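Order emerges. For instance:

***
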Amino acid sequence: MIKHIVMWKFKDDVAEADKLEMKRQLESLKGVVPSLVDIEVGMDVIGKDASKDMVLTTVFHSLADLQAYADHPEHLSVVAFVKPLVCERAVVDYEV
């Protein structure tokens, strides 16, 4: 199994509605992208300087499945929505 974790920091002027829409769009990938086993999206509740604002945790059976997710048109549509909202992105992919 592969876990793919992404964390983002929002730009200062991003509306709360856009943050919630980003979360909704990410969660909507479950059942749409066949290689996606599980997904969880969380928003930071502490707000420390070191904190990111949103985290995505996804699970795949293999690295090939992760790549299929990355290339899937629905995922790419969400990426296009997300990019203008964020100023930082961090990623970790690991095997479990």
Summary: The mean pLDDT is 97.
